[in-house]
Amino acid sequence: SIPQIAAIVESEHLFPLLRGRNVGAFSAQPDPTYRILLPQRGMHGDPELAVTAPHTYRFLGQFRSELEQRSSYKRFQKGRPYWSLWSTGSYTFSPYKVVWREMLGQQFAAAYVGPYSDPFLGERIVVPDHKLYFVALDGEDEAAYLAGLLNAPIVARAITAYAAQLSLGVSVVEYLNVPGFDPTNEHQQRMARLARDITVRNTPATAHEQGEMDHLAMLLFGLRSA
């Protein structure tokens, strides 16, 4: 029942959108059709939007009644600008993110995504939709390391096994004692290189790579000696 309206908006508030359907193991591709309009950089909408982005303000004004009826707005952001989006903060605009789907498929899978060269917007950070969970990170090495560790078959199977009893959201990192990133750790650096290579070539990990990720994961979790 919401009309489709074509209008000019300020491009600074448009971002590539990453949807759950476009995320798999070591693969996270922004949607080729859609962008997300996100006129805030913190937890609430910019109250000065009418001045700083008048085109965006006028566009959103056409949907005021629908925006004010959102349950998240009425519950968490009453009194804030009606264009405010919940679950949005500085983490949303982190340059790198390790992402996984809210709904589990056959097996847990994670990927990392960094700045993206959008054909219309240029280089932008990628914003995940509400069907994705993510860890916000500043650098590619740490993001690749975490994606590699979570995708190691022994770790992915463990997450899949307990996901039926627990929320798949933040429990992925809450219930795993993930070793913090240390750029001088040779095992973590090897895991990061593996994840980066698989991500760049955009093909599934080979059996040899999966075996190496398992070996590194066991070393990092202290289950095997070097």
How does this model look, in words?
Helix 8 runs antiparallel to helix 9. With 226 residues, this protein is α+β, with helices and mostly antiparallel strands. The chain starts with 13 loop residues before the first strand and ends in a 6-residue tail after the last helix. It is 35% helix and 16% strand. It is elongated, with a radius of gyration of 20 Å.
Task: Enumerate how many helices there are, as a single number.
Answer: 9
Distance between the ends: 60 Å
Q: What about the largest sheet?
A: 3 strands, mixed
Tell me the series of helices and strands, N- to C-terminal.
EEEEHHHHEEEEEEHHHHH
Can you count the beta strands? Answer: 10
Rg to the nearest angstrom?
Answer: 20 Å
The main sheet orders its strands as: 4-1-9
Query: How much helicity do the residues have?
Result: 25-40%
Low-confidence stretches: none
The helix-and-strand class reads alpha+beta
Residues in β-strands, percent: 15-25%
Rounded average pLDDT: 93
State the shape.
elongated
List strands and helices in order, with pairings:
Blueprint lengths: L13 E5 L4 E2 L2 E2 L6 E3 L11 H4 L1 H8 L2 H5 L2 H6 L19 E6 L8 E4 L2 E3 L3 E3 L2 E2 L3 E6 L2 H12 L1 H11 L7 H4 L11 H16 L5 H14 L6
Parallel strand pairs: 1-9
Antiparallel strand pairs: 1-4, 2-3, 5-6, 5-10, 7-8
Helix pairs in contact: 5-8, 8-9
